[in-house]
């Protein structure tokens, strides 16, 4: 199968979770014998074209014209993506399907679909309404409407959790059978050969301190503010603890101020951006990982922590709620409830046997349910469904057009016979 991936991020550009999903899925599809071409945004000093272990990656720069806002920038990027993809199609032939990732590439996907008659399969990784607990202004409404447009134009839609399937049905009224639940996956070899690096660990905490780890973007929906609010209770119950917050985002200054206001700034370490290697080392150094999101369609970081062997605490919301079984392969807390977060963390700090059981069960679940071989097969099947449906619709249109021509021809013949009979009658009387 010849597949075109449209995405606004692909390694080394990593903004959120889309980049890693597209990267891992593309490589698995190529390994299975497919041809995958990725068209994405060019950021920094990276090549415009790269053969990434069989995946053809084309990167486009955006226009030099300075946009008025982010949505204008995205629209300009879509023009550039469309131009590059059209050139590739003219030079290398058409694709069997387009896999579009989120609203950020919606207009490019629709244009290519209409111009070259290629079915779209879209993955909706998150929604604007979900991220913001509703739609509150015109920009959010524009993004929400673009998400609807992409799902409407798509033959099949992929989401990563049952929670997201329900959300898309509620927001956009999509047919139940059009939405395919395929979870995100993780490379099961991510932590092979990586052991706890004590010198690395000592950069962030003392040997006697237990590390509570958060990795991710510093934005409101990730709930870091609730984790920081839980720290006084955690410290009171287990003094030798330290919270390590890895990542960057718009709430950085606000979160640091929150720590100062609580008088626990010496118990919290903000690492800023961490390279992928340092993220792997950090997981191996952590004693507990906490992901306290208030909105989370899936949560790849949870899989990373579970695979790394770190007992994990998550909110009972979204995809996180589906990944973790409380007390079996992780612990849950009530979303947005700092007191509940503290209770789950303290339970793990004091119960070593529970931690051991959780780690064992978590690794088993990740390997059985979230491996890329299984996910790639399910994605490929969705591509086949979309292509078959598009072909069936095309044949139905052709039959309908042929029937319309036959009906028109029969109608014309009938009119001609009627005219001749009328002519004969008229001349017979004469």
Describe this structure in words.
- The chain has two domains: 2-181, 3-Layer(aba) Sandwich (Rossmann fold), CATH 3.40.50; 198-370, Glycogen Phosphorylase B (Rossmann fold, 3-Layer(aba) Sandwich).
- It is of the alpha/beta class and 430 residues long.
- α1 packs across α15 (372-429).
- It is elongated, with a radius of gyration of 27 Å.
- 52% of the residues lie in helices and 15% in strands.
- The mean pLDDT is 91.
- The longest helix is centred in the last third of the chain and has 58 residues, at 372-429.
- The strands form two sheets. An eight-stranded mixed sheet has the order 3-4-2-1-5-6-7-8, with helices on both faces.
- It is built from 15 helices and 14 strands.
């Amino acid at each position: 199968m010849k597949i075109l991936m449209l995405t606004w991020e692909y390694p080394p550009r990593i903004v959120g979770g889309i980049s890693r999903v597209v990267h891992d899925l593309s490589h698995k599809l190529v390994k299975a014998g497919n041809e995958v071409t990725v068209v994405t945004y060019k950021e920094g000093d990276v090549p415009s074209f790269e053969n990434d272990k069989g995946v053809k990656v084309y990167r486009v720069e955006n226009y030099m014209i300075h946009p008025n806002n982010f949505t204008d920038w995205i629209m300009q990027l879509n023009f550039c993506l469309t131009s590059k993809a059209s050139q590739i199609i003219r030079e290398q032939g058409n694709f069997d399907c387009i896999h579009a990732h989120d609203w950020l590439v919606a207009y490019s996907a629709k244009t290519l679909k209409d111009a070259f008659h290629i079915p779209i399969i879209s993955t909706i990784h998150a929604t604007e309404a979900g991220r913001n607990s509703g739609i509150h202004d015109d920009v959010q409404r524009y993004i929400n409407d673009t998400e609807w447009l992409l799902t409407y134009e798509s033959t099949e839609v992929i989401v990563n959790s049952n929670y997201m399937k329900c959300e898309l049905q509620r927001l956009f009224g999509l047919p139940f059978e059009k939405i395919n639940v395929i979870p995100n996956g993780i490379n099961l070899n991510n932590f092979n050969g990586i052991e706890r690096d004590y010198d690395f660990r000592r950069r962030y905490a003392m040997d006697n301190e237990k590390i509570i780890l958060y990795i991710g973007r510093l934005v409101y929906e990730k709930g870091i503010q609730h984790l920081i609010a839980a720290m006084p209770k955690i410290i009171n119950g287990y003094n030798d603890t330290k919270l390590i917050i890895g990542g960057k985002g718009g709430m950085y200054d606000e979160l640091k101020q929150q720590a100062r206001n609580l008088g626990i700034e010496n118990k919290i370490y903000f690492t800023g951006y961490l390279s992928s290697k340092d993220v792997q080392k950090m997981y191996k150094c952590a004693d507990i990982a906490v992901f306290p999101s208030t909105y989370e369609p899936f949560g790849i970081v949870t899989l990373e922590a579970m695979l790394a062997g770190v007992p994990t605490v998550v909110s009972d919301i979204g995809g996180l709620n589906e990944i973790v079984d409380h007390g079996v392969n992780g612990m849950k807390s009530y979303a947005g409830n700092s007191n509940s977060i503290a209770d789950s963390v303290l339970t793990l700090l004091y119960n070593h046997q529970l931690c051991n059981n959780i780690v064992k069960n978590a690794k088993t679940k990740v390997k059985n349910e979230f491996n890329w071989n299984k996910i790639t097969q399910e994605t490929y099947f969705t591509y086949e469904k979309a292509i078959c449906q598009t072909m069936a619709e095309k044949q139905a249109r052709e039959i309908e057009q042929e029937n319309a021509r036959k009906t028109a021809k029969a109608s014309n013949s009938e009119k001609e016979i009627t005219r001749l009979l009328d002519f004969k009658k008229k001349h017979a009387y004469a």
